[in-house]
């Protein structure tokens, strides 16, 4: 795909996919866990779960049958609209999706048995407040070394100049300060392959990996060069560096 075609491709992709990342074709090799499967294994049929930064809700909906009820929140109203549409398509009745700020949770204390948060900021103190005694928090976050070849190609990017591990240490300290005990973490750095040009373009346009991506025509030329350099038989190669923290209140 030529650089001048990327903007037209994005218009088509946005019209078809909206904020629905389930349409992105990508495989990972070396991922040490599946985050929502890890959460699901801790669920009981009597539990209520809060999913922070739920996005289009696909992941939360996939474990709804393991719970009594789940609530997904996101700052983006368009994300919540997508989640509601996905809920209707999946015919899931024990879920609700609400636009809300994770720093100011509008729930009573001790409402949830579990809190999950994948790739979104959260307040450790607020999570502790809405969890029951002995409740558990699960979070997966993007490490500073994520998408290292992409950020190098563009000369800018999310957490480009930050030391790997700073986010992990900050969250662990905040969780302990909020009263969580048995705080455990794990990390991995996996190879990630995007099947099509438009899959990688969708990622860049809908995430802050490369801030302001597409505002300058030069970005499309850099992306074209990157795709040509890193295209392999399995797809366009980059890396997915992740950390997971599990904490009990």
TrEMBL record:
Domain of life: Bacteria
Record carries keyword Transferase: yes
Domain Methyltransferase: 50-131
A molecular function (GO) term: methyltransferase activity
A Pfam family that the UniProt record links to this protein: Methyltransf_25
GO terms classed as biological process: methylation
Keywords: Methyltransferase, Transferase
Keyword Methyltransferase: yes
Protein name: SAM-dependent methyltransferase
Protein's organism: Paenibacillus ihbetae
């Amino acid at each position: 795909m030529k650089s001048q075609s990327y903007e037209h491709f994005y218009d088509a992709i946005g019209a078809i996919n909206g904020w629905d990342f389930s349409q992105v074709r990508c495989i990972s090799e070396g991922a040490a866990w599946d985050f929502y499967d890890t959460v699901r294994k801790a669920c009981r049929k009597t539990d209520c779960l809060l999913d922070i930064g739920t996005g289009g809700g696909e992941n939360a909906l996939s474990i709804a049958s393991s719970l009594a009820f789940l609530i997904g929140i996101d700052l983006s109203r368009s994300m919540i609209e997508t989640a509601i549409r996905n809920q209707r398509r999946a015919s899931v009745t024990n879920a609700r999706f609400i636009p809300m700020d994770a720093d100011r949770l509008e729930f009573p204390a001790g409402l949830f048995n579990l809190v999950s948060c994948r790739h979104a900021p959260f307040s450790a103190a607020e999570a502790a407040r809405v969890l029951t005694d002995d409740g558990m928090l699960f979070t997966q976050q993007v490490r500073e070394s994520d998408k290292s070849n992409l950020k190098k190609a563009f000369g800018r990017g999310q957490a480009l100049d930050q030391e790997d591990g700073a986010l992990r240490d900050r969250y662990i300290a905040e969780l302990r300060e909020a009263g969580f005990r048995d705080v455990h973490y794990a990390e991995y750095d996996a190879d990630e392959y995007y099947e099509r040009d438009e899959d990688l373009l969708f990622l860049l346009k809908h995430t802050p990996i490369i801030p302001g991506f597409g505002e300058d025509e030069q970005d499309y030329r850099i992306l074209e060069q990157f795709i040509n350099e890193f295209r392999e038989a399995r797809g366009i190669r980059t890396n997915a560096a992740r950390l997971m923290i599990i904490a009990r209140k």
